[in-house]
Amino acid sequence: MGESTARRRESMSDQALIEGTGADWKTWLALLDERGAAALDHTAIARMLVDEFEIDGWWAQSITVGYEQERGMREPGQRPDGTFSATASKTVPVAVGAAFEQLADPEHQAAWLGGLELSQRSASPPKSVRFDASDGSQVYANLSPKGEDRTAVQVEIAKLDSAEAAAAAKAAWKDRLERLAERLA
Question: Which of 14, 46, 55, 95 could form a disulfide with 64 if both were Cys (CB 3.0 to 4.6 A apart)?
């Protein structure tokens, strides 16, 4: 099994794929190869799966990404536009409104961001906020209440140049979210 096959299969097992779509990875890879999917872009492959095989959109996206990784069209973590993204999450010990304030307010950010500056692009208080970061990345934070006094903070860091940059961003944001949680404790 090649490295990409191992990574693809770690993200979704043959059993899960069979249960969700009726076929395993080997079958999907062969079907897409027969239809010339290696010459298609991401959207066209996913559309083919939905239209021709009547696969639900979520499964179509998962199969498409797995196919692209297996055929060397995309690295793990790489988006269709060629950039990379990473995610980090942490549950913090405050209500969603207080967590949103810490994320969105520049005066509060300085205490836990560690030198990174964020410029807010948009917000839907208290559920989400989007930023352009001083390092050139884009940061999307989503907040979900976990009872009255806990909030799950999920951050996606996008527009990264490489898999290595994605790994570094993930580690840096795990540290930042840990500092945020400590500050709120």
Answer: 46
